Amino acid sequence: MNGCLSAVLLMLLMSSISPARAASQDECSIWLCLPGGFPSGCEGARNAMVNRVKHHQSPLPDWSECSTTEDQALPESQLAYSEGFAAYVPPHRICERVESRSSGSCGSGRNGGGSCQSWQVCTQWSATVYPEAHFPGAFCNVQQGADGEVWKNQPAYCTKTQRYRVVLENGQPIGEPYYEG
Question: Which residues make beta-bridge pairs with 173?
């Protein structure tokens, strides 16, 4: 009886081993869809990546979890991914002329007293619209004044920091980085 039970357990164990060792088809599809920015038909892969991140897993499964036994006969290339943060600069124009404005009684009176507020206004914008850009490794630092007005962004014109991921083959990027948020 013990021998028969052992044989059944061994058969069940052997039948449960599949060529793709642990990751689902959607998780393995992340490797193919991420370099293309998750085009049409890759919704399952994108959802799988988001689900993995929500559950504190790496965004992509190990490549070995997605390779099959037949893959071992193919020439070996090293697949990996890299991730990080990048400052995002949206399309923008550059201010070419600034004028100072003020309200109240700036500089009047005996002591130059009175209530005074001054600020600067852009009166001429460039005709050129500069394209969006990402600065990998940089975080967008937006500094605001007491009134909530943005007065300095570093890198210039950035609006937010985004997480990115890129698939690498033999250390070289495949496709463009995929930016979130």
Answer: 168
